Amino acid sequence: MRVAIAGAGAVGRSIAGELLENGHEILLIDKAPTAISVERVPQAEWLLADACEITSLDEAALQRCNVVIAATGDDKVNLVVSLLAKTEYGVPRVVSRVNNPKNEWLFNESWGVDVAVSTPRLMSALVEEAVSVGDLVRLLRFSHGDANLVELTLPEESALAGTQVGDVQWPQDTSLVTIIRGTRVLTPTREDSLEAGDELLFVAAQAREEELEDLLSVRRTGTGR
Fold it and tell me: Boundaries of each RCK N-terminal domain copy (predicted)?
């Protein structure tokens, strides 16, 4: 997979290193000569250019990229890069870094953003996830389709403990994608039983989050279909 990363600072280089280890083809783009540190990520391609300029993106052959990551420290730049990547080059997946939480509302499909990653929000979510049992924690927002990646640790008192996944009437627009049980990561099947203490990861429409939290957290008289 070919991935272009706009912003070759510490964040961009770190992302590049991780993706290179997973076998992807990486292009790092930055307009600051001081940011071009080929020796730090020698396996990547490097381009000294302004990622907000069409001529630069033509040179980068952005149309050949499967993913573009806007990882600069400037939200305005990240929005422009995202919009150009999606509208001018038809990049299938655009991921953008949000530096200022006040700007998070802008990072949506109107600006070409498929996934917006807000470091402050993610850090606070991880803190909540570490201390919360029975409370739904939003980990990541997918701008396209208004869906979120959410986590909830199944409490001891939940009536769903011991229930098979296939017997639960989940809310509409909700999908259980992973069960984390101790050190194990499980891909759920209909026959798997939920256990107290399970960390459940869902992709869910934002409008269904409250319904999902009620289903998992509150002891109910009926849990099956």
Answer: 1-117
d(CA 181, CA 187): 11
Tell me the pLDDT tens digit for each residue of 131-145. Answer: 455 667 777 777 555
Phi, psi angles (nearest 5°) of residue 167: -95, 0
Helix (H, G, I), strand (E, B) or coil at 3: strand
Rounded CA separation 179/186 (Å): 5
Structure-block tokens of residue 153: 């640790």
CB neighbours (10 Å) of residue 184? 7
Distance CA 159, CA 139 (A): 24
Of 176, 156, 152, nearest in space to 166 by CA: 176
Tokens encoding 152: 């909830």
Measured in degrees and rounded to the nearest 5, phi and psi for residue 114 equal -90, -40
Instruction: Specify which residues 199 forms β-bridges with.
Output: 153, 180
- Return d(Cα 113, Cα 96) in angstroms, integer: 6
Residues 84-136: tens digit of each pLDDT? 999 999 999 999 999 988 898 899 999 999 988 876 665 555 555 444 556 67
Distance CA 21, CA 93 (A): 20
162-181 CB burial, b ≥16 within 10 A, e <16: ebbbeebebbebbebebbee
Residues 115 and 95: beta-carbon distance below 8 Å? yes
Q: What is the pTM of this model?
A: 0.64
C-alpha 172/C-alpha 74 separation (Å) is: 37
Share of the chain above pLDDT 90, in %: 58
